[in-house]
Amino acid sequence: MNARLVNDLVEELLYKIKLLPQNRMNIQALPDDQKAIALLIQLESDMSLASLVSLLSKNVHCMETATPENLHAFYTWLNKRYYLTLMTDASLSLTPTSSINLACVMLACNLSKYDNKQMYDLLMPNVKSINYIFPSRGDLNSLKLHEFILGSDEKPLSVEQCFTYLEYKVQFARSRSKSSSSNVPSSSPLPSDLLIKSLNLDEEGLIANHSQEASQYYEAIQLNKNKSECKMALIEALRSDNYRVLASYGEEGKVRLVSNLLCGIQSPLELADIMYKYVPKQFWSLFLETIKHEDLFKIVLNLDLEKLRTTCQNAEFKKTLWLNTDEMLLLLSADDFTFDDESQLHAFMLCLRETYKIARKEGPEYKSNMGYYVGYWFSWSHPKEAMLSSCDVFGDLLQSDPPHPCHDLKGYLKARNLYDKHWGPLTTFICFGTNTLASLVLMAMRLSKKIEAQLQVVKQMVHLHLQ
Between 301 and 192, whose confidence is greater? Predict the structure, then answer.
């Protein structure tokens, strides 16, 4: 093998990555129950691809010989990415045509030339591909990514072979039913030549819903009708490059993916940066809703909800959560943050607003008995329902596209005939209630004016430069 330099390999990969098909999902056109997981799959693809391109770019001037030792960073990256998406819908075998998975295959193919390892061994570091043999096909390397899933034990399972097991399983159940009625002993459900373990319910669910053809075959097996036709249709589809995987790990996979994506994110600024760079503005709220409350409050406010639940119960927990959230948000609202533009500010404020909204829903009507007395009898403070309604209006402003400047809140409200109802709850400070929302709104207005001032300075500098 001719010696090759790292920078040659890097430049080739960067060029090929630019040519990869985008394969972006039209999330807006999907049913509501599929939008969140589609958004997370796209987010993971974009973030991981940016991470890979960054790693490649850092090595574009490396003149060392391409050896496993000098390419160690790329092996490590593949390893981390595998565990990031393991048992999620973003994994290699469930979304094989995503841009990032195509890039991973490309990277693994190139790395395999330098250490004689198989591509799948590099893509899935806990798998030794030659140890998995599939009748009439060969080892794992003879299968395309969409032709297998990873079982609960992280070992590859051939879709075709799993259906062979499912056929035997149903046949055995029928023969057992007949034999029990006729007192004839039933035979073993699995022939000795069937080289597959029994599937658990999660694995069977993935196989049964693996694709449209798989679902039709699974139904044919259950009904004992048209099995041969459906089997041939599935096999033909599996051999095709146009096979479309529909299997999903469901809610558990979604929670696992978003938790993995946010691992290491420790501040609202970092969370907002992800939204600003990778999440379409129309889906910011949907993205925040996918995050577990425990993770969201830990990132945004450094509040440990799990610990709080162990010390407070039910109503006391809700009240304490609201008071702690109120305290932390008021502290944040006093800080003087700097943002590049209005959209970046909007992303940050929406993170804060989300914690406010969650805690306010759970919390009591008023912060204190005095607040209740003043609010109820004199209407000097706004009830919780009014505050939550205004909170939603504030959220709409933060997701406006193009971004409406926060310092022009009055103009935003008046243009939509919302001023009379929401200006008070959004901006009024009271003596015996919570001023959290007003503090957040005024913080957004103050930082928005700061951004406008920064832009004016830049414009003046450009003007002077052109003169």
Answer: 301
Task: Give residue 100's identity as a one-letter amino acid code.
Answer: I
Residue 309 is which amino acid? R
Task: Indicate the range of 196-210, 254-268, 276-290, 429-443 predicted with least confidence.
Answer: 429-443
Q: For residue 191, report the phi and psi dihedrals to the nearest 5 degrees.
A: -65, 155
Q: φ, ψ for residue 187 (rounded to 5)?
A: -90, 175
Q: Output the pLDDT for position 370.
A: 46
| Residues 128/143, Cβ–Cβ less than 8 Å | no
150 φ, ψ to 5°?
-100, 130
Residue 410 DSSP class: H
pLDDT at 369: 47
- Torsion 299-355-255-399 (CA) sign: negative
Q: How confident is the model at residue 116 (pLDDT cuts 50, 70, 90)?
A: confident
Token pair of 222, please? 């259950």
Please say whether the beta carbons of 261 and 44 come within 8 A.
yes
How much is the pTM? 0.90
Q: How far apart are the first and last CA of the chain?
A: 59
Q: Is the previous residue joined to 402 through a cis bond, with omega within 30 degrees of 0?
A: yes
Crossing angle of helices 384-398 and 419-427, rounded to 10°: 100
Query: Could you tell me the two tokens for 313?
Result: 């119960």
- Give the tokens for residue 76: 């490590």
Please work out, in degrees rounded to the nearest 5, the angle formed at the alpha carbon of residue 281 by the alpha carbons of 279 and 286.
70
How many other CB atoms sit within 10 Å of the CB of residue 69?
Answer: 11
Q: Write down the H helix ranges in 209-341.
A: 212-223, 227-239, 250-261, 268-278, 284-290, 293-301, 305-311, 314-333
State how far the alpha carbon of 309 is from the alpha carbons of 259, 320, 367, 456, in Å. Answer: 20, 10, 20, 48
Residue with tokens 């319910």: 201
CB 198 within 8 A of CB 204: no
